[in-house]
Amino acid sequence: MQISMVDMPRNILILIILILALQIPVGLAQTPTQLSLTLVGQSGEQYLTPVGRTTELKMEILNVAPSDLYLVHGFAYLDPNMNGTWQLTHSEDLGGFHLSYLQSAIWTFSLTMPPEIQAANVTDGVPQVDLLIKVAYLVSGGPQRVEQGLFPLGVPGATVRGANDLIWLLVAGTFVVIFTFSVSVVCRTRKRSRAR
After folding, report:
1. How many domains does the chain have?
2. Virtual CA dihedral for 144, 55, 152, 102, nearest 10 degrees?
3. Is residue 191 part of a domain?
4. This prediction's pTM
5. Is position 142 within any domain?
6. Is 19 within the bounds of a domain?
7. What is the pLDDT of residue 21?
8. What are the backbone dihedrals phi and psi of residue 75, each rounded to the nearest 5 degrees, phi first?
9. What is the average pLDDT score of the chain?
10. Which of 52, 59, 123, 125 has the lowest tally of Cβ within 10 angstroms?
11. What whole-number distance in Å separates Cα of residue 149 and Cα of residue 83?
12. What pLDDT digit, counting tens, does each position of 92-118 carry?
């Protein structure tokens, strides 16, 4: 059976409709975002949490979905060694606080920064780490859910991970360049002496 050129646009349209139809159930099965989490309280985007000290932070929890919900628990995690192992730093019962659509709550909590913590980079001259916040909540008639977010923190006194590795990389790169240059000079000198 041959497909004529007239049937091609119609077949392509049918194929596109089938692909879209298969994608719709997947999209409907995903749980929409219920909460919006935002760090508030400090000036600008730089939240300073010095090493070895306890700092008070404020998190705005906004209900952005039409259904009412109840805040159950808040969790704060840090990755002190930058190896992907998140450690629970603070946990607090949020008392089943009720939020309806576009209502918000301010969760004030104390975050203790470990005395030895590694930072990913330096921003505005201050080492920076990520804070992972998770908020557990209940929607009426449903199972407990969790919303989470990553927030950058400026951490004066933190060790910048990879600083020593970068120095060794620069030293090794310089050595390779000098070695390559020396070998090329020796090879040229030998060729010239043989040519004579």
Report:
1. 1
2. 50
3. no
4. 0.65
5. yes
6. no
7. 57
8. -130, 140
9. 80
10. 125
11. 18
12. 999 999 999 999 999 999 999 999 899
Residue 56 lies in a domain: yes
Q: Residue 91 belongs to a domain with what CATH number? A: 2.60.40.10
Q: What distances in angstroms separate CA 57 from CA 9, 32, 40, 173, one per listed residue? A: 58, 27, 8, 43
- Which residues in the chain show pLDDT less than 70? 1-33, 42-45, 162-183, 185-186, 192-196
Q: What are phi and psi of 167, to 5 degrees?
A: -65, -45
Where do we find the tokens 């209900």? 63
Length of the chain: 196
Q: How far is CA 193 from CA 86, 182, 185, 186, 187, in A?
A: 63, 17, 12, 11, 10
192, two tokens: 């010239």
